[in-house]
Automatic annotation (TrEMBL):
GO terms for cellular component: nucleolus. This is U3 small nucleolar RNA-associated protein 25. Residues 194-464 form the UTP25 NTP hydrolase-like domain. It comes from Urochloa decumbens. The keyword Glycoprotein does not apply. Belongs to the UTP25 family. InterPro entries: P-loop_NTPase, UTP25, UTP25_C, UTP25_NTPase-like. Its main location: nucleus. Keywords: Nucleus. Residues 1-102 are annotated as: Disordered. Residues 474-652 form the UTP25 C-terminal domain. It is found in: Nucleus, Nucleolus. It comes from the Eukaryota.
Length: 653
């Protein structure tokens, strides 16, 4: 797949003052006269070419003076109206409170989360509090790991959190998951707390021998479905109350404050189409809704059957599984849940769930390739964001993901059919980002994931993350190789790249430039380092060739042949190139790791490339700031010794 150059993220929109809330239909009309852009809507039904769905935004005037558009209530009301006999709303429409039905309405997590109103003072305090992880609990089913968190301590034992789940969903999950339900409840309980979650020891499906590890995926899909159903139930129930009582006036109390600026509430961000297909397929299986619309289009674009492994592959099994399906990284569509059906490719402003790749969503935010008007208001009311396989996204363009987060939960530029008298107060206070839950999932932790979690995730409920003691992967090396680790000093993270480069130029390169023997495989982990070292070797007129993510297949083949035959002494090799191709570089006699790979399984693969050499050498450069990578490779305890020791040279055999 092609690699794209980083696109600088657009600056976040400036803060706007809190919109006025009308207390009656008359004041609602006055508000629209004062703000003409709020009443701006298309009179005709158009087609959104990116979602492939009708784009209707006409208003329907209600008897109580409110305005209801498709963004918050469906155009097909007959599909969403509740029949008291179906068991969804016990006691018909007589329901005290506005968020949860059943006997647990006031105690369920959803009601508790959306009903609390936080002040500006609390916002300032929680930003400080969310940086202090002060409690921990065991991470069941996650080897050598524990959960640490901010805010109130969570219970170690997982109670039956299905009491928070709507009846139809609960019954369907008990039937569908059968004996596997308990294995999902641990992570589901964390999601149901509405805390920001960073799980960076998630074993992805392509690293398991059975192909799929669905417990974590099932848990966050169950949480997303429950949140959407709860949200829709409240809106539909209140719609029915207002229709039944024409004299009702919507006021500033909490009875009818049940909406955001727009309808979409859940955002799934995934790196590849094959991953999106797995998510949607499982979402449909976990939903009790029987009717599925637009499945034909979905199968055409994402494939009809499960991805099959190549029969005679020479690549590692995890590589074949990871890239077995459609590896396109450009997709964006909406999913709408009604009473009876799941509708794929729904208009974004009619959707409950958005499924996207960071690249496609970034392009949508920027207005597309044809100079369209920028339109990302459908991200204004996102309440749950799930970023799965963040480690794979880091091998694409992390800047796209950061840009998406910077455009979440802003005030919309248009109304989009919203009933302004029913918007929750924390949306108007521009506090939506503090109610948004972010779930970051990755097989390993990177500084970029850490920065995103610490800098752009601010749920007022708190944060929780995994902390893991790693055993390392040195035991997977099949050869007897003397691995020399050289530590260089750096005073700060901003100077780390320059310090590494200076150490290589002044301490390492002089030792290798005079050697007559070739076969030096020079591995770098980032594109920036790849370009920098390439330019340096050119300036020294070194005998080298290179294999990077942007190198053509013809040049790759030529470089590998030259290196194997000894015509070029040095082969410069990037981690992204190894990620997307997993080449076995023949002719390697000396391995020099300029910067450690982020994916720990790459390290033994690189060292094992020395198998054809009789005089094997391996040198690794690192600093104290490389702890995250170092502990995954040599183990947590050894990494700490390497970081804290007074010595700067270490040997592993």
């Amino acid at each position: 797949m092609g690699k794209r150059k980083p696109v600088p993220s657009a600056g976040a929109r400036g803060a706007k003052s809190r919109p006025k809330r009308p207390k009656s239909a008359k004041q609602g009309a006055e508000l629209r006269e004062e703000n003409p852009q709020l009443a701006e809507q298309d009179d005709a039904e158009t087609v959104d070419t990116e979602s492939g769905a009708p784009k209707a935004v006409q208003h329907e005037k209600k008897s109580n003076g409110g305005f209801q558009g498709i963004a918050q209530s469906d155009e097909d009301n007959s599909e969403d109206e509740y029949d008291a006999s179906n068991g969804d709303v016990p006691g018909g429409m007589v329901n005290k409170g506005n968020d949860c039905s059943d006997e647990t309405e006031t105690s369920c997590s959803f009601h508790r989360h959306v009903s609390r109103i936080i002040t500006n003072e609390e916002v300032k305090a929680l930003i400080k509090q969310n940086s202090k992880f002060k409690w921990e609990m065991p991470a069941v089913d996650i080897p050598r790991s524990k959960w640490v968190g901010t805010g109130e301590t969570m219970q170690e034992a997982c109670d039956d959190h299905l009491h928070d789940v709507k009846g139809k969903l609960r019954n369907h999950w008990q039937h569908t998951l059968s004996g596997h339900l308990n294995s999902r409840m641990g992570f589901f309980s964390l999601c149901n707390s509405y805390r920001d979650i960073m799980h960076c020891n998630k074993k992805p499906f392509y690293l398991k021998s059975n192909g799929v590890d669905s417990s974590t995926m099932d848990a966050y899909l169950m949480h997303a479905l429950n949140h959407v159903h709860r949200t829709r139930d409240v809106v539909i129930r209140n719609d029915a109350k207002l229709r039944n009582d024409a004299d009702t006036e919507i006021s500033d109390d909490n009875t009818y404050l049940d909406q955001g600026f727009t309808r979409p509430k859940v955002l799934f961000l995934l790196p590849l189409k094959s991953f999106a297909r797995r998510i949607v397929k499982r979402l449909i299986q976990l939903s009790p809704l029987q009717q599925k619309n637009a499945m034909g289009q979905f199968k055409k674009e994402f494939g009809e059957s499960d991805d099959e492994m190549p029969e005679h592959s020479t690549k590692p099994a995890d590589f074949d599984l990871l890239f077995a399906g459609d590896i396109d990284d450009h997709f964006l569509f909406g999913i709408k849940l009604t009473k009876k059906s799941i509708k794929l490719y729904s208009n974004f402003y009619s959707s409950d769930i958005i499924v996207a790749s960071p690249l496609a969503l970034k392009r949508k935010i920027d207005g597309g390739e044809h100079g369209k008007e920028k339109d990302f208001d459908f991200l204004s009311s996102i309440e749950i964001v799930v970023v799965d396989h963040a480690d794979v996204i880091s091998m694409q363009n992390w800047a796209h993901l950061e840009a998406v987060f910077e455009h979440l939960n802003h005030l919309p530029s248009k109304e989009h059919g919203t009933n302004v008298m029913r918007i929750r107060p924390w949306y108007l206070d521009q506090h939506a980002q503090y109610y948004r839950q972010t779930i970051l999932l990755s097989s390993y932790l990177t500084p970029e994931i850490n920065a995103l979690f610490n800098g752009l995730c601010f749920s007022y409920e708190g944060k929780i993350k995994t902390v893991t003691e790693y055993a390392g992967v040195l035991a997977k090396i099949q050869l007897e190789v003397r691995q020399v680790y050289e530590r260089f000093d750096t005073s700060s993270i901003t100077e780390a790249d320059d310090a590494r480069f200076d150490y290589f130029c002044n301490k390492v390169y002089p030792k290798i430039q005079d050697l007559d023997e070739g076969g030096l495989l020079l591995f770098v982990s980032s594109y920036f380092e790849y370009i920098r070292i390439s330019n340096f070797l050119k300036s020294k007129e070194a005998s080298f060739c290179r294999v990077g993510e942007a190198t053509s297949q013809q040049d790759i083949s030529r470089s590998r042949l030259w290196f194997f035959e000894g015509k070029k002494k040095i082969l410069l090799y990037s981690e992204r190139s190894h990620f997307y191709h997993r080449y076995k570089i023949r002719g390697t006699k000396h391995l020099l790791i300029y910067s450690l790979p982020g994916r720990k399984e790459f390290y033994p693969e690189l060292v094992n490339m020395l198998g054809e050499s009789e005089n094997r050498k391996c040198n690794v450069l690192f600093s104290r700031l490389d702890l995250l990578k170092l502990e995954r490779i040599v183990g947590t305890s050894s990494a700490r010794r390497l970081i804290s020791s007074d010595k700067s040279m270490f040997v592993f055999c």
